[in-house]
Amino acid sequence: MRKAASLLGTFCRQFKGSLNRNFLVEKNEISLTLVPATIQTHGHHSQRRMSTKAKLADRLKGTEKNIWVDFSKLAVENKALNLGQGFPDYPPPQHVVDELMKAVTGNNPLIHQYTRSYGNPHLVNTLAKLYCPFLGRQVDPMNEITISVGAYGVLFCAVQGLINPGDEVIIIEPFFDCYEPMVMVAGGKPVFVPLRPAEKGGVLSSADWKLNPEELSSKFSSRTKAIIVNNPNNPLGKVFNRDELEMIAGLCKKHDVICISDEVYEWMVYDGNKHIKIATLPDMWERTITVGSAGKAFSVTGWKLGWGIGPPHLIKCLQVLHQNCIYTCPTPIQEAVASGLDYEITQLDHPEKCYLYTLAKELLPKRDFLAKTLSDFGMIPTIPEGGYFMMADISKLNLHIPDDDTDDPCDFKFVRWMTKEKKFTAIPTSAFYSKNHKSLGEKFVRFCFIKDDKTLKKAGELLQDWKASLA
Ligand code: PMP
Ligand code: GLN
């Protein structure tokens, strides 16, 4: 490592000019970091001249903040028990890990090289086979599927590939936070419409959060290019029922609007709920891009592999973007996911052996444990019908949270304080609302329950101790 550090130091000295003098090498025993040159390093001032052109591109303005970057860092810095960011803290299915080992240790040298831009042929063929019964149609693997860097990559390609400056894109709140900046960066205009909870008090189900059909309809116009539907929804866990999807589909058809359906949590549905693909509703295939994620399907969020499925005229638009900015995704990962899914396909009729189905069974007791834990503490959870997150109302907690001198909504202040003082972290829910609707989200925080039982138990103990300290 030291040798590497000194080599990189030499490299950087040699190429100081071409590095535009904007970065220095921060060197220590175990890591190398490129840091902006204006930052003071090792206690002495090393202010270098900065080009006046080194500024964020205009189209990125307003997208500087990122909830995952900020709150994951905060959790690590405070060594907090982390029920914030959504990832499992226990191993993924062994057969999928074995497939990756097989892929990289096998005899095929080409596994280490680029593969087809729009997706490794093995993977797209497997996905076509997997989704055929769920979409109720044959899927052409070469023209109706495209692979990108996680569902993030697919969403980015879809938005960049389809949205023109000035186009409006309807986003249902609470929404997975990246939708808004993606639309803004494309020059589009996000138009928000909230799901509203029933006013009935006590524990709610995510099914109690509904769209107002008139309100939704009022957001559609000739300027509307697309709507982004997240089903099951993150952070709420809502699984849209057939009537709700038909209502959305009807508006898409009436106004000739494209539907980007983010279905990364498609396999995680509880209590007999059924996940319905909006692309299967009459005349919706032609106007829908369905987004999936291997990170979610196989609990391997670090593998970053996603897919978009839809008609060739839409998929082509994603591919044009993908081929020039990503080109292709890692071949061994694609191969492992393909082989893992090949196995799952053989088990679809044996739900007890098929990971795509057993995952929800594994998550259900975790969901229920978390709901009870939060309720016992005095929060009011919304029980999710799908996904692996739970929103909980913190407004009845009666805690005194000191102000932190920021202009942030209350839930941000609460989670920051809880992380620092209680060593427990979650995600403030107003992050999933647009600027004008933050007040709808700020009395909730989001907890992730795809965590080891031991982690969830620790969370329970932590909340019990906290409650006892208040008595
Ligand atoms: N959509 C939603 C709703 C998500 O929660 C996530 C989080 N991972 C993504 C897309 C991105 O998925 P990936 O990790 O596959 O990029
Ligand atoms: N989708 C995950 C979540 O909602 C993580 C997203 C991220 O870390 N960027 O927690």
Automatic annotation (TrEMBL):
GO molecular function: cysteine-S-conjugate beta-lyase activity; kynurenine-oxoglutarate transaminase activity; pyridoxal phosphate binding
Reaction catalyzed: an S-substituted L-cysteine + H2O = a thiol + pyruvate + NH4(+)
Residue intervals of the Aminotransferase class I/classII large domain: 80-459
InterPro entries recorded: Aminotransferase_I/II_large, Kynurenine-oxoglutarate_AT, PyrdxlP-dep_Trfase, PyrdxlP-dep_Trfase_major, PyrdxlP-dep_Trfase_small
Co-factor(s): pyridoxal 5'-phosphate
Domain of life per record: Eukaryota
PANTHER family assigned to the protein according to its UniProt record, in alphabetical order: FI04487P (PTHR43807)
Record note on quaternary structure: Homodimer.
Protein name: Aminotransferase class I/classII large domain-containing protein
Source lineage: Eukaryota, Metazoa, Spiralia, Lophotrochozoa, Mollusca
